């Protein structure tokens, strides 16, 4: 944890003082925020290359100059893992990009990932002095984070963090999403013998099978996994814990504690008539076929049905990813059908903006009622109903109410249902003593993330329901610390 | 990577493989399946574990060549490696003692049927079996099924072996001869549909093992969903076995056809490039 003392000690370092003096604060605030360069919307909706192309070094330094190196850097409180934001930003201003990356790695195992997918506008950047006091666009913290991490990766000089002496104690991580990877990294650094078990054939969880390449190239995740391997972390893919081996069997193989980062993979459906027709997918299936299995790429065997008229049901990040993917696979009409209004949409603003630019249609305040199909069972039409916004509901958002008699049909050949996920009950079902909530999430102690089984700790989506990459990683790190305490007490090291 | 220990053709289009997978061999029970990927770019296909040897650390699969992936698999030999194998998946068959059980297998469906019939027999049931296929060549595991069954009827569509006629004909023969307490039907969806229509007529509780299209096999994608008793179930985690009289087989049939055209196209290009690469 960074304390105010550490922060002020670092802020008082001569190099920081000098930098602060080099430009007047008032001049810093006059610098315009740098926009993230991106591929042209027409071009990019025909390829799967990254939409955002990243800052040039000059842009990064200029953007870093905007940061005021505040006495009380409120931005840090907005970051779930408390990255020392002014320190890394000032390293960029100094031109020490590798140094900036190292600062990031002190607290964040996957900076190249978070710099791309964090909802910065509601996290770090929402707490920036510019946002809070100056009513100006925040320092581009996420974009700078991405820049520093990319610089390090492209330089080929990836620093491998220092590892404490190996203590030979075996510990197991279940699930290789961001929660599991973060826990693995920290435990490895503490000297533990760490194995990550993953049910799928690829490591990375949602980062691989869910988030598309145009937002997060797989290669970036792979580089981070390589770093973990250098830390001595072992990976067992094709290993479904609870089935391939039970927790009990792993205990008898010598694993002393477990981190459960199984995610919330179970897709929800609406249970409306016709939802099982051919051509109607969960977003998990659609994105997995394309991102993980390579459907649509030459030389890969997995097929996917992706047509000309694609409707995506829902308004979250997953819905945006699905609809933009459909566009890239050749949809002439790719639309979002969402039952609330644009303002209530849970997706990141940047994603919605990108989607609009790419020609995605937004049918807000519409709700599907049923599907119609041809004789082969292939979906042909969706019946939708218009909605109105009523009183606020439990979530504080205004509740959509159907408008009677407003139903109409839309022609579709592909439908992607993207209305949320639930925790996968597969592992919990094999552990009768494991306490779960009504929603199937695991019950944990808030401070230690310990479950009702003492050697089992858990975090990420399996505890929170669908959340974010950075929250999952924060949990992984917190649990790693608690597992360390637990093992210090309960395992005798020989 | 998972090593192929042995391979043998049971007929022109059906082959048996023993694969080295010690953990799966130890954990598996009748009714379980695996998902495998033949190579780096392969699709994930589900296959029943039809036997295994925990001592040797091997599992047995019996596969019918029908499309690109099963064809690629058929080209591998003992000593070669399969890129990915995960399991055991699905729920094991509930084996209880109920009396006389009618086991009906269609085509390669006999492969998943065999371990279930063996377990039922071992538990003390009387087992009577019907093996059905289009022709003589497609009748597999006859010897093994005879060893575990008290009686066997063989049916072929063309009469080239056993009796001429459909699986339901053989089933009815048993049903009329003796009191059947339960039935197990496994085979192509269309066969299971008609077999379970028959047992419904006679009020015989029936279990079917569904072969829906799958991707992950862990409950994550919903590709495998079917309607059972009016609600949606995921075959990979809720099944693969269900009360046959509750299954919407027509929906299953439509969903199984989802990729037929794409698969045919891939078959025309696929195996060719595959062979071209000299693999
Ligand atoms: C399409 C999509 C887009 C998203 N976009 C964003 C975004 O832009 N920004 C953001 O912050 N968040 C986003 N999210 C949410 C974010 O990805 C998740 O909150 C995060 O990945 C959760 O991490 P996790 O480690 O808890 O689980 P996951 O990433 O879900 O990983 C869990 C892993 O555990 C494996 N597993 C499960 N059970 C077992 C078992 N029994 N044995 C072995 N392995 C098992 C699974 O196969 C999986 O690989 C998005 C999610 C999706 C689906
Ligand atoms: C639980 C389960 C157990 C099975 N056990 C066996 C077995 O023991 N032996 C055996 O020979 N077959 C078994 N199958 C069927 C086997 O999975 C398919 O034959 C195989 O996937 C076909 O792949 P292909 O590429 O060769 O053929 P394709 O040309 O791709 O497909 C031919 C047909 O197979 C079905 N199919 C295609 N892809 C999949 C998929 N990913 N998952 C499921 N079905 C698919 C479709 O109906 C398709 O029309 C089982 C299926 C399930 C669900
Ligand atoms: S990890 Fe996310 S929230 Fe934290 S500083 Fe980086 S972009 Fe902001
Ligand atoms: S609050 Fe904004 S300006 Fe202040 S240190 Fe943080 S990023 Fe820089
Ligand atoms: S195969 Fe994906 S949920 Fe069953």
Report a brief summary of the structure:
The complex is a heterodimer of chains A (494) and B (279). Chain A has 494 residues and is an alpha/beta fold.
Tell me about this structure:
The complex is a heterodimer of chains A (494) and B (279). Chain A is built from 21 helices and 16 strands. The mean pLDDT of chain A is 93. Chain A is α/β, with parallel strands linked by helices. In chain A, helix 7 crosses helix 11 and helix 9 packs antiparallel against helix 11 (141-155). The radius of gyration of chain A is 24 Å and the shape is globular. In chain A, strands 3-2-1-4-16 form a five-stranded parallel β-sheet. Chain A has a five-stranded parallel β-sheet with strand order 6-14-7-8-9. By secondary structure, chain B is α/β, with parallel strands linked by helices. Chain B is 31% helix and 30% strand. Residues 270-279 of chain B have low confidence and may be disordered. Classes of the chains: A alpha/beta (494), B alpha/beta (279). Chain A binds chain B through residues 199-201, 209, 237-240, 243-245, 265-267, 269, 271, 275-279, 281-282, 284-285, 288-289, 293-294, 299-303, 305, 376-377, 424-426, and chain B through 23-24, 27, 37, 41-44, 68-69, 72, 83-89, 215-216, 218-223, 225-227, 231-232, 237, 251, 254-255, 257-259, 262-263, 266, 270, 273.
């Amino acid at each position: 944890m960074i304390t105010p003392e550490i922060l002020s000690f670092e802020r008082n370092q001569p190099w920081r003082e000098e930098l602060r003096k080099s430009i007047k604060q008032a001049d810093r605030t006059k610098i315009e925020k740098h926009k993230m360069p991106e591929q042209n919307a027409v071009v990019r909706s025909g390829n799967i290359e990254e939409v955002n192309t990243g800052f040039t070094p000059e842009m990064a330094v200029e953007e870093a100059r905007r940061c005021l190196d505040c006495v009380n850097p409120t931005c840090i409180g907005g970051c779930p893992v408390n990255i020392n934001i002014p320190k890394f930003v000032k390293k960029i201003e100094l031109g020490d990009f590798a140094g900036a990356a190292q600062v990031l790695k002190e607290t964040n195992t996957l900076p190249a990932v978070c710099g791309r997918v964090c909802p910065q506008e509601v996290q770090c950047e929402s707490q920036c002095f510019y946002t809070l006091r100056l009513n100006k666009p925040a320092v581009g913290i996420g974009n700078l984070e991405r820049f520093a991490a990319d610089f390090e990766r492209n330089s080929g000089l990836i620093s491998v963090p220092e590892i404490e002496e190996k203590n030979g104690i075996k510990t197991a991580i279940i699930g290789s999403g961001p929660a599991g990877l973060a826990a693995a990294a920290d435990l490895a650094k503490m000297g533990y013998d760490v194995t990550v078990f993953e049910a799928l054939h690829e490591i990375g969880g949602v980062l691989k099978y869910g988030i598309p390449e145009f937002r997060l190239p797989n290669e970036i995740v792979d580089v981070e996994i390589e770093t973990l391997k250098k830390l001595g972390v072992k990976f067992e893919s094709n290993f479904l814990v609870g089935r391939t081996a039970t927790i009990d069997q792993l205990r008898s193989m010598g694993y002393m504690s477990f981190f459960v980062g199984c995610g919330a993979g179970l897709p929800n459906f609406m249970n409306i008539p016709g939802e099982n027709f051919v051509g109607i997918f969960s977003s998990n299936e659609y994105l997995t076929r394309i991102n993980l299995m390579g459907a649509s790429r030459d030389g890969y065997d997995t097929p996917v049905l992706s047509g000309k008229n694609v409707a995506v049901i829902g308004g979250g990040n997953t819905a945006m990813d699905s609809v933009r993917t459909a566009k890239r696979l050749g949809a002439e009409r790719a639309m979002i059908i969402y039952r609330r209004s644009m303002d209530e949409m849970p997706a990141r603003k940047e994603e919605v903006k990108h989607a609009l630019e790419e020609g995605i249609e937004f049918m807000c305040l519409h709700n599907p009622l049923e599907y119609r199909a041809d004789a082969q069972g292939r979906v042909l039409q969706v019946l939708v109903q218009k909605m109105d916004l009523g009183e606020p509901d439990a979530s504080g958002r205004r509740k959509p109410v159907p408008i009677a008699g407003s139903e109409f049909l839309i022609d579709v050949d592909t439908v992607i249902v993207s209305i949320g996920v639930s925790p996968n009950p597969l592992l919990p079902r094999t552990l009768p003593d494991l306490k779960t909530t009504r929603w199937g999430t695991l019950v944990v102690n808030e401070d230690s993330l310990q479950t009702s089984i003492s050697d089992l700790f858990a975090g990420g989506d399996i505890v929170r329901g669908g959340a974010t990459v950075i929250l999952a990683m924060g949990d992984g790190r917190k649990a790693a610390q608690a597992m360390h305490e637990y093992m210090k007490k309960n395992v005798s090291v020989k | 990577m998972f090593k192929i220990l042995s391979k043998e053709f049971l007929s022109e289009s059906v082959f048996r493989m023993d694969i080295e997978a010690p953990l799966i061999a130890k954990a598996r029970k009748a009714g379980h399946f695996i998902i495998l990927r033949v190579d780096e770019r392969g699709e994930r296909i589900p296959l029943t574990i039809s036997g295994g040897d925990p001592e040797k650390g091997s599992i047995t699969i019996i596969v019918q060549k029908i499309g690109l992936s099963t064809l690629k698999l058929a080209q591998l030999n003992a000593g070669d490696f399969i890129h990915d194998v995960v399991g055991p998946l699905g729920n094991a068959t509930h084996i209880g003692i109920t009396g006389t059980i009618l086991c009906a297998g269609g085509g390669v469906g006999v492969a998943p049927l065999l371990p279930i019939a063996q377990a039922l027999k071992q538990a003390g049931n009387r087992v009577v079996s019907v093996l059905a296929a289009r022709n003589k060549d497609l009748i597999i595991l006859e010897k093994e099924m005879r060893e575990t069954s008290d009686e066997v009827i063989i049916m072929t569509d063309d009469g080239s072996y056993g009796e001429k006629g459909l699986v339901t004909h053989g089933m009815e023969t048993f049903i009329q001869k003796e009191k059947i307490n339960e039935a197990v039907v496994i085979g192509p969806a269309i066969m299971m549909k008609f077999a379970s229509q028959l047992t419904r007529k006679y009020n015989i509780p029936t279990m079917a093992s569904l072969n829906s299209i799958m991707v992950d096999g862990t409950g994550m994608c919903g590709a495998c969903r079917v309607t059972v008793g009016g609600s949606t179930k995921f075959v990979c985690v809720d099944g693969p076995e269900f009360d046959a009289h509750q299954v919407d087989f027509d929906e299953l049939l439509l969903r199984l056809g989802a990729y037929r055209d794409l698969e045919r196209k891939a078959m025309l290009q696929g195996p060719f490039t595959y062979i071209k690469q000299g693999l």
